[in-house]
Amino acid sequence: MHDISIRRLGTWAGSMALLATAAVTGPGAAPAHAATGDLKCTVHFTMSFNPALQPGGSAVATLAGALATCSSPNGSYPALHSGTGQGTGQAKATGGPGPCAVVFTASGTGTVIWNTKQQSTLSFTVTTDPTTGQVGFNCTVTSGPMTGDKDTVVITGVTAACTTDGGTQSIGADMTMSLS
Predict the structure, then answer these.
(1) Which residues have C-beta within 8 Å of that of residue 170, sequence separation ≥ 6?
(2) pTM of the predicted model, to two decimals?
């Protein structure tokens, strides 16, 4: 009987380790790949909504971001070390568990001005689902350095700010982003 309890404990511990790994990496996390992309950066971005986004509502989305500690794994862009980004788009909330936790999609266009003063334009889509904890950030570079590149992100933190009347005023995320 003691042996059966130890096996059950081992099975339970293994299941908990898998669940913990899924919670940390999330079901949408990209698998690890060799460093072959054009650029890899740490990113902090904030998306603000006007008016505050509520379930079933829509808003203008304004995006601001800071890209830092950039490196070029394949050597194609060794001069790009950092950049600042901004963009605008539309957000539509399809529901959510509460007025300050909405399921939404926001799409738009933006620019990144690199430390070299070069400029990349991009299209972006941000999705979030607070019921599953998933946040997606997808972009494609449409002109400038890395034209045609798409991103792969690993999100390391998410924040949200709410208004006193219950709408989502902004979200923020920290991530590692690779462009290739």
Answers:
(1) 46, 47, 48, 49, 160, 161
(2) 0.76
What gap in Å lies between CA 25 and CA 90, rounded to an integer?
A: 28
Gap between the Cα atoms of 42 and 18, Å rounded: 27
78: Cβ contacts below 8 Å, ≥ 6 apart: 72
Given a contact cutoff of 8 angstroms between Cβ atoms, the answer to whether 55 and 96 are in contact is yes
Which H or E run contains 122?
strand 119-129
Three-class secondary structure assignment of 11-31: HHHHHHHHHHHHHHHCCCCCC
CA-wise closest residue to 167 among 44, 48, 65, 86: 48
Each residue of 21-80: pLDDT tens digit?
222 333 333 333 334 799 999 999 999 999 999 888 999 999 999 999 999 999 999 999
Q: Which two tokens stand for residue 103?
A: 């399921």
Other CB atoms within 10 Å distance of the CB of residue 71 = 14
Residue pair 63/88 in contact (Cβ under 8 Å)? The answer is yes
Cα separation, 29 vs 23, in Å, equals 10
